[in-house]
Amino acid sequence: MFRSIFSRAVNLVVPFQAPTLSKLIDEESKIGGTLFGHASRGVTRRFFKDDGNSWFYSESAVDPSTRQELYSYTIRYEVLPQGILKSVDGRGHVFIKGIELGRLMQAMSLYKQRIRSELYQPKQQKATRSSAA
Amino acid sequence: MTTPFQQHPGFDKGPEFPQGYSIRRSQEEQQHGGVAGLSKHAMDLADLHEQGSRQGNTLQGIETATETMQALEIAAEIDAMRSSLLASSGVESE
To answer: For the complex shown, is ipTM > 0.90?
Structure first.
């Protein structure tokens, strides 16, 4: 029972392996990468919360024909008592505000909802929907 | 540099994610993880504060207090989901 639940939940290969925090975050980051709409061919996105109070958005692009990397960057958003501190590839620290802050909050909230429904409680959601119908 | 948080009007427009991506966290982790990384991060923060003081800027603490609290609540809920799953599978820590 547990095996099938966890295999499905964290997409583990058989034979069963216990999920680890790293694997969970990795799976979450794939879901997080889908929150930002359609990605062009060759573009890869990840968005996730680490095991602390930081959130990461990474994006990279390769030329689909040559597989040569075109660009890549990682943005870190660190939640601090003073606000949310942003840095791009470890540089340019600035507290975000306004539209960017609002959209980040929206992304965090959606991320929580999506990982809950797709990773942590997929069977529970299905059962709830069935009983409500 | 513009980010999706500055650029796109909305989210959740559908999954289009290429497979086989190797997560690119090492650079950030190297900079912020471990004792040396923490020192580097503390220096960055000190620079930021110094720069802000020189320019007469105040930090966004008051304006973003609500968002910060909200972000901490979301983070706590996510941590709880992770812990719950790990605990139920017998994993206590990595």
So the answer is: no
